[in-house]
Design a protein that fits this description.
- The chain is mainly α and 197 residues long.
- The protein has one domain.
- Helix content is 80%, strand content 0%.
- It is built from 7 helices and no strands.
- It is globular.
- The protein starts with a helix and ends with a helix.
């Protein structure tokens, strides 16, 4: 598999968790010109104004995603933004090579980020119920860390980033099954406690 395509997938998938961290990593990577060079028009991502805008949006995302209730509204908005960011990331990462058709990159980025976002958006309500909302900020911090680290690895070691995405997907499936098993017990305990009050 082409290295640019691996980088594209390694950047697009974590955009499903946080749209702006991978964009910031890509912009800084292009700005430093050490690991990736973005072709036109994607080189606009690494302009000073674009980086400032990405940092502003990232700051808002980091705060809002830690607040129970607002995090669900953020996930609803993310249903459009995160797959779109994945598509842009994949096209930008492959823009300097002719090996990958831009439409193929767009579709792969959209699907990778969309799948990760769907997993996040369907799991977060379960975490909210299971922890009474207390676990949401912790889960959000873990998601942000995973998104940032995976994006950096995607620029430096694309094979490792894709392997990490696969391992995280398997871990997610395991955790989701586990939460589904314990959720009825948690819900009944939560309901009986609420009714007693």
């Amino acid at each position: 598999m082409d290295g640019a395509l691996l980088t594209a997938l390694g950047l697009a998938a974590p955009a499903g968790l946080n749209a702006y961290l991978p964009l910031l990593v890509l912009a800084i990577g292009d700005r430093l010109s050490t690991t990736i060079t973005l072709a036109r028009p994607y080189d606009a991502l690494s302009s000073t104004w674009s980086i400032a805008l990405i940092v502003l949006l990232l700051t808002i995302e980091l705060v809002v995603d830690k607040i129970p209730g607002l995090d669900h509204a953020n996930d609803l908005l993310g249903s459009v933004l995160r797959p779109a960011a994945g598509a842009v990331l994949a096209m930008a990462a492959t823009s300097d090579t002719d090996a990958v058709n831009p439409v193929v990159a767009l579709v792969l980025g959209l699907l990778a980020a969309g799948a990760v976002h769907a997993a996040k958006a369907t799991t977060r309500p379960v975490v909210t119920v299971a922890t009474g909302g207390i676990g949401n900020p912790l889960i959000s911090m873990v998601e942000d860390a995973v998104a940032g680290v995976t994006a950096v690895i995607a620029l430096l070691l694309p094979w490792l980033a894709v392997a990490l995405v696969v391992v995280l997907a398997l871990a997610f499936l395991w955790a989701r099954r586990r939460l589904r098993r314990v959720r009825p017990a948690i819900l009944s305990r939560f309901t009986s406690t609420t009714l007693r009050q």
